[in-house]
Amino acid sequence: MKAKNCLIFGGSGQIGSNLIRKLTKNNLRVIVVTRNIHQKGLKIKTQANAGYIDIVESDIHDEEKIRKLFEKSDICINLIGILYENKKGNTFKNIHTVFPALLAKLCKQYDLESFIHLSALGINEAKDSKYAKTKLDGEKEIIRNFSKSIILRPSVVFSRSDNFTTQFMTLLNRLPIFPLYYSGETKFSPIHCSDLTDIIYYILSHDVNSQIIECIGPEVLTFKDILKILLDLIDKKRILIPFPFPLANLSAKFFQLLPKPLITQDQLRLLKYDNVASGKYKTNFDLGFPSKLRFYDEVKKYCYMWRSGGQFSTEKYDFKKVVKNK
Questions:
Q1: Cβ atoms of 187 and 276 closer than 8 Å
Q2: Is residue 70 part of a domain?
Q3: DSSP per-residue string spanning 178-215
Q4: Computed from CA positions of residues 256, 262, 266, 269, in that sequence, does the dihedral angle turn out positive or negative?
Q5: What span, in angstroms and rounded, lies between the C-alpha atoms of 24 and 48?
Q6: Residue 2: pLDDT band by 50, 70, 90 thresholds?
Q7: Of 140, 174, 148, which is closest to residue 306 (Cα–Cα)?
């Protein structure tokens, strides 16, 4: 059978890198679009064997160049998203609404088999968040323009190359006091990156008709639970203090002025809403494809980078256990 061609936008991030390896191992060819081939090209090339991957440099807003890529594609996958806006055209509206709408129109025009779009969990409730509103608007445009679209809404995605657990462990390692926004009660259902990419491949290889699928991990954890787990794993003791909203909002207003903000006012508003299955749509569990990797067990595999002693703090180098095993 002829190998299918998957056109991937956002292939250099943690999800994209894992997905490329997954797809190419299963005899699918990928065309990966990047805006800077000199910076990202080498990393992307290492994710697949030669002959299974093509890398194309293009601005995602260059419709003429993108259009040509659809001529030789069977499937389109969009993984592009931003957590904060900048002044270079990367606005929430451009990235989360305008661009996905363009991809959906091109999928319909070139009669692709499927369009998989990565959205986010909890956006229906977060009506006061610009991030959530533009994500939701993007979903509506996709469904309106291409009926064979599948929208995935994952909870927080984690892995050793994420910007979630790694950033929090860095901050917890350095700060003696850490703020608890909304008293740390916001709920999450963290899903490991490899579980999410397995779900994407499962959708591609099975007849999945659900247009919106919520992708969740095997457990529900509060923000405070997550911080406590991370502190335990890096063997640190820190004071977790609930932050009143006015003070939290003021700090977010300051942090969002930084080139890479720790938190923005929009993210603070988003953090008010639980990031778990809504019950309104099917989940990966409903599809018969449950997530298996648990938060503590997986983060434990790479948390040593934030522990005193580094790799020598792992169980492999625990002298007492080594002697006992002998």
A1: yes
A2: yes
A3: EEEEGGG--EE--EEHHHHHHHHHHHHHTT---SEEEE
A4: negative
A5: 6
A6: low
A7: 174
Alpha carbon distances (Å) from 270 to 83, 221, 227, 297 = 11, 17, 18, 27
DSSP labels, 76-87: EEE----SS--S
The answer to whether position 86 is within a domain reads yes
Residue pLDDT, tens place only, 262-300:
899 999 999 999 999 999 999 999 999 999 999 999 999
Residue 130's nearest CA partner among 312, 26, 326, 268 is 268
Per the structure, the complete domain to which residue 34 belongs is given by 5-165+191-218+276-299
Nearest to 193 by CA among 314, 19, 325: 19
Whether residue 145 contacts residue 109, with contact meaning beta carbons closer than 8 Å, is answered with no
Number of structural domains (the chain) is: 1
206 domain residue, yes or no: yes
Nearest to 110 by CA among 143, 52, 66: 66
Residue partners of 275: CB distance under 8 A and separation at least 6? 121, 122, 155, 156, 186, 187, 188, 189
d(CA 324, CA 88) in angstroms, rounded, equals 58
Long-range pairs for 133-140 at CB < 8 Å and ≥24 separation?
133/92, 134/92, 134/93, 134/95, 134/96, 134/97, 135/81, 135/92, 135/96, 137/93, 137/96, 137/97, 138/96, 138/97, 138/99, 138/100, 138/101, 139/100, 139/212
- Span 7-16, pLDDT tens digits: 999 988 899 9
Please count the CA atoms within 13 angstroms of the CA of 173 that sit on its side-chain side: 15
pTM of the model: 0.91
Task: Supply 323's token pair.
Answer: 């002697």
**305 domain residue, yes or no:** no
Strand bridging mode 157-158 / 212-215 = unpaired
CATH number of the CATH domain containing 37: 3.40.50.720
CA angle in degrees (0–180, nearest 5) for 170-176-178: 70
